[in-house]
Amino acid sequence: MLNIAEDIEVLARFGRALADPIRCRLLLEIREAPAHPSDLADKLGISRTRLSNHLACLRDCGLVVAVPEGRRTRYELADARLGHALDDLRSAVVTVAADRTCAEADEKGCC
């Protein structure tokens, strides 16, 4: 049986995670291949502290998991279906709104 309230909460949580460009980049990087924080920080050109905060957010949202590897930790998508969802979402958004901006973000809080 569908629970609309739970579905809405999960979608809103996914939306909050995607609302930040750094988290979007992280998800797309991790979607390509699991990675260690130091490698992700270098690829994204951000500090490890800042990266750690974004990874914590993605973990809390249930989108990525931390996998211990000896002294290091590797991050990967929590479920392979998230990679497919990101691909589908990216394709749909690019197709529908590649030339759009959210000019009303300050007025209506739409974006």
UniProtKB/TrEMBL annotation:
Span of domain HTH arsR-type: 4-100
CDD domains on file: HTH_ARSR
PROSITE patterns: HTH_ARSR_2
Gene3D superfamilies, alphabetized: Winged helix-like DNA-binding domain superfamily/Winged helix DNA-binding domain (1.10.10.10)
SUPFAM superfamilies: Winged helix' DNA-binding domain
Any one Pfam family match given in the protein's UniProt record, by short name: HTH_5
Alphabetized PANTHER family for the sequence: HTH-TYPE TRANSCRIPTIONAL REGULATOR CMTR, TRANSCRIPTIONAL REGULATOR-RELATED
Protein name: Metalloregulator ArsR/SmtB family transcription factor
